Amino acid sequence: MMNLADSAPVTNNLLGSEADSQRTLYPYVTGTSVIGIKYKDGILFAADMGGSYGSTLRYKSVERLKSVGKHSVIGASGEISDFQEIMRYLDELILYDNMWDDGNSVGPKEVHNYLTRVMYNRRNKFNPLWNSLVLGGIKNGQKYLGTVSMIGVNYVDDHVATGFGNHLARPILRDEWHENLTYEEGVKLLEKCMRVLLYRDRSAVNKLQIAKITDEGFTLSEPYSLKTFWDFNAFKNPTLGAEGSW
Amino acid sequence: MSRFEESAPAKGGFSFDLCKRNEMLVQKGLKPSSYLKTGTTIVGLVFQDGVILGADTRATEGPIVADKNCEKIHYMAPNIYCCGAGTAADTEAVTDMVSSQLKLHRFHTGRESRVVTALTLLKSHLFSYQGHVSAALVLGGVDVTGPHLHTIYPHGSTDTLPFATMGSGSLAAMAIFESKYREGLTRDEGVKLVAEAISSGIFNDLGSGSNVDVCVITKGKREYLRNYMLPNPRTYVSQKGYSFSKKTEVLMTKITPLRELVEVIEGGDAMEE
């Protein structure tokens, strides 16, 4: 006698409350913004190392920037467990590519397209991977920088960001980014943006990493923190001339 | 047996009866009427000798630009100006009201108005309306106690800051301020930074646009620089111009003077008591 409880899981993922326990409804452990820019020799990414559990800062050493194959870097914001799942998919993709052993290697454009398909198809099944991804790399001198969101929106640009980075960092990048930034200029620009995010994004932490990808390969900096300034006169004496107010 | 029980509020304060009725209507499917919002970028900063206020000039009604060149920097007193974001009618009305109250107060005290006076009048009004008066303000001015800059939120809370931004474009403008502001800026540096922050809002936020207004307030002097920058000019203007063909023929021209006015003679009969 067929035991119905063990038979194939509910295929219709659109309705049904039992199916709900198998779909993503909201994120739990999240990472905040990632910023990426093209520079002279390749791509630079910056992301902080915080993993928030709602309004608690639960994890302070989460690496949200990872290399993908020889030519690409991925940065993720949103649900950390979904990012780990995406890394498993990507590791499998790279493995199969290496197994061909044909001298070709998966480049950033291919990875970006793959991720777009994955994210969009999950969205269509109402079971998204709750992430906003930044994907960049350089292959044969050709620089590539793109982004994919949890609903499958994807595009390429000279500078990209996720989450709050879109509101706070993109305006600065639109003003100050230009072709052929040197490595030092690029890092300085990223730090400028990360500092504003640190001041104004409540989920940001002062511990960040910079990732670089060039034709030579991938490097991930050691975690470090930014200098901040809190000595404005108005902060020291905000009620000057108005004792009793706040 | 009174049918007029719900008419007036008990003792001052806001009557929330209509709010309940409005919520009920919305639940039944009534679309609330659209109001003119300013979708906006407004900023203020304190510099060496005083304060500088800045604002964009776009007023939106949903997705439509209702006014391409409106004025968001409102006069409060000769030494105090206020930028307003949120519902245009609310910002206009509340700043006008407090401006009048300040004038009467100046007559009463014989002294120059203080920024904290305007601040207290605005915040107590907004608080008593529990956020229903949708006005988010950047208030700045220079008085005897020095330069002051404050932000006021629709629910009535205030902050005292060296630099401030409000409105939908506030994040774009704040990104500029947080990366470039420092204390002791000169007038020209301050104006340049304010214009940069407003431009960031104009070009990166869809709710803000058109031109940049700036107002510089120092001890004893204020410069209202309307349309300080026009970064969105009309790019194509037809060289040919327009010609309007004559539709109606003129048959006859005749000028008829009105009747002579009646002469009023001074010192008629005395008024009756």
TrEMBL record, chain A:
Entry similarity comment: Belongs to the peptidase T1B family.
Gene3D superfamilies linked to this entry: Glutamine Phosphoribosylpyrophosphate, subunit 1, domain 1
A UniProt-annotated Pfam family: Proteasome
Top-level taxon of origin: Eukaryota
CDD domains assigned: proteasome_beta_type_4
Function description: Non-catalytic component of the proteasome.
UniProt keyword terms in alphabetical order: Cytoplasm, Hydrolase, Nucleus, Proteasome
Subcellular location as annotated: Cytoplasm; Nucleus
Name under which the protein is recorded: Proteasome subunit beta
Gene: PBG1
Record organism: Salvia divinorum
Entries under PANTHER family matching the protein: PROTEASOME SUBUNIT ALPHA/BETA
UniProt GO cellular component terms: cytoplasm; nucleus; proteasome core complex, beta-subunit complex
Main subcellular localisation: cytoplasm
From TrEMBL, chain B:
Keywords from the named record: Cytoplasm, Hydrolase, Nucleus, Protease, Proteasome, Threonine protease
Molecular function (Gene Ontology), one example: threonine-type endopeptidase activity
CDD domains: proteasome_beta_type_7
Annotated catalytic residues: T40 (nucleophile)
Cleaved signal peptide residues: none
PROSITE patterns to which the protein is assigned, alphabetical: PROTEASOME_BETA_1 (PS00854), PROTEASOME_BETA_2 (PS51476)
GO biological process: proteolysis
Domain of life: Eukaryota
Gene3D superfamilies on file: Glutamine Phosphoribosylpyrophosphate, subunit 1, domain 1 (3.60.20.10)
Any one annotated GO CC term: cytoplasm
Subcellular localization, as worded in the UniProt entry: Cytoplasm; Nucleus
Catalytic activity: Cleavage of peptide bonds with very broad specificity
InterPro entries, A to Z: Ntn_hydrolases_N, Pept_T1A_subB, Proteasome_bsu_CS, Proteasome_sua/b, Proteasome_suB-type
Assembly, per entry: Component of the 20S core complex of the 26S proteasome. The 26S proteasome is composed of a core protease (CP), known as the 20S proteasome, capped at one or both ends by the 19S regulatory particle (RP/PA700). The 20S proteasome core is composed of 28 subunits that are arranged in four stacked rings, resulting in a barrel-shaped structure. The two end rings are each formed by seven alpha subunits, and the two central rings are each formed by seven beta subunits. The catalytic chamber with the active sites is on the inside of the barrel. Component of the proteasome complex.
Family membership: Belongs to the peptidase T1B family.
Role according to the record: Component of the proteasome, a multicatalytic proteinase complex which is characterized by its ability to cleave peptides with Arg, Phe, Tyr, Leu, and Glu adjacent to the leaving group at neutral or slightly basic pH. The proteasome has an ATP-dependent proteolytic activity.
Protein name per its UniProtKB record: Proteasome subunit beta
Encoding gene per record: PBB1
